[in-house]
Amino acid sequence: MHRTTKSAHAALFAVTAFAAATAYASAAPIAYVTSETNGVGIIDLGNMSLEKTISLGKDGPRGLSLTADGKRLLVAAKTGELIAIDTSTGKVVDRVKIGKNPEFVRVHRGYAYVTYEPGESGPPPEALQGGAKPAQQGEKQAGKGHDDDDDANSPPAEIAIVDLKTMKVLRSVKSGHETEGVEFSPDGHEMLVTNEGDDTVSVYQTGTGKLLRTLKLDAGSRPRGIKVSPDGKQYVVTLENTGKFVVLDAASFKPVKTVDTKLGPYGVAFDPTGKHLIVAAARDKTLQVFDAKTYAHVADVPVGQRCWHFSFTPDGSKLLLACGRSNAVYVLDASNYQTVGQIGNLPLAWGIVTSPPSSGSIESAR
Questions:
Q1: So which residues are the signal peptide here (predicted)?
Q2: What is the pLDDT of residues 273-287, one digit of tens each?
């Protein structure tokens, strides 16, 4: 019976994957970029230009993720909602109430996982265009987090689990303080989230949200980005405040290596070839390249300001980096990681994903 069930699940997954691949194959490749003041920018990857912008008014979009078939783009909005956009029309077709300050969104096996912070007393980071600002108003400052009003006495962050068939919140699970990155184990059974406010990584059972274990990292390190290695044997977690990333064994969750980076590492991903690890060191305005096996440093590439998230193009030839304080997406040649262009008119660009899906700091190639 167990084997039959596993075979049935495998067959269903194969059919779903084939249907999604067929849908993607019929559409021209594009990238979606959330702009905290403009909405969602759509980039034509054929000519690397901003095709149009889906206006979301004052919704303030941040995290984003596509459904498996590419028909819906899900966006976290500062209105406390998860917004569903029909990718064929660019129209908002649904809104799901989440809670205060939803930020990171990941779609996995028919569910959307949305982080939010009910403990925050103020609004989410505001779209300020320059000058000094309090830590809770956006970009992290050296030695501080972007929401330093969060403390051990405030309620922890939560993760809303949304059923994509009904577009209803099934449940919310408590996490640590200031939950940031979300990643899934290769077998899909576990979800790992980084909690920068209390320097932990939480491990949950997917679907149920049952807490399996909590990993404590260095005090004050503020873990943010997280990615599983191509072979599924390790996780890489960026530590924003200490300028490092830590490599965790995927079986034991014990640290096996710690590597120095430039200041403020956040977004992290392996390239489509599996040869390099890419880290966005935002405070140093640098994109860093490391060997994916040894984690030896390979190269540093100067980029723009507040570059948090990035994605490779579906064909793997380019890397697109959302640079919020530069109000642009930087375009890099993935063969040598040199900047070959910029796509502007994207004020406070936050996150970026592509259709068809590709490797990046938010999504992973399916």
A1: 1-27
A2: 999 999 999 999 999
pLDDT for 209 equals 92
The tokens for 265 are: 């590492």
CB neighbours of 73 closer than 8 A, spacing ≥ 6? Answer: 32, 40, 64, 65, 66, 67, 84, 85, 87
Give the start-end residues of each E strand in 121-189.
Answer: 158-163, 168-174, 179-184
Report pLDDT digits (tens) over 213-240: 999 999 999 999 999 999 999 999 999 9
Which two structure tokens, joined as six digits, stand for 130?
Answer: 């320059």
Across 124-177, where does the E strand assignment appear? 158-163, 168-174
Of 12 and 178, the one with more pLDDT: 178
CATH of 29-125+139-355, one of 2.130.10.10, 3.20.20.70, 1.10.3720.10, 3.40.50.720: 2.130.10.10
The region, left, alpha or beta by phi > 0 then psi within -120 to 50, assigned to residue 310 is beta
The string of pLDDT tens digits covering residues 72-120 is 999 999 999 999 999 999 999 999 999 999 999 999 999 999 999 885 5
Q: What are phi and psi of 64, to 5 degrees?
A: -155, 155
Cis ω before 356 (30° cut-off from 0)? yes
**Encoding tokens for residue 91?**
């129209």
Map residue 132 onto helix, strand or coil: coil
CA-closest candidate to residue 238, choices 287, 300, 175? 287
